[in-house]
Amino acid sequence: MSDLFIIQLGQDMMFNALLISLPILGVGLAVGLLISMFQTATQINEQTLTIVPKLLVVGMTILFLTPWLIERMVDITMRMMNLIPEVARNF
Fold it and tell me: Which pLDDT score, from 0 to 100, does residue 86 have?
């Protein structure tokens, strides 16, 4: 097992973690920004006004993206399972 293989595997895992979390975090960021602009414009400083809509929108995003998320994670798992013989051979 070479150093290049380990680095490549780590890069692949980091990329997949970013790819899986990016839509959910992006939606949460966008909703938070919109609510913050609304709060600034109206000078309302209510904490539940930021938390509840973000929870609802992020939850809906997760529900909407669940098939894609599961497909992506199954693909990652299958690629890792296929690498087991190669790792065992080189270990």
Answer: 82
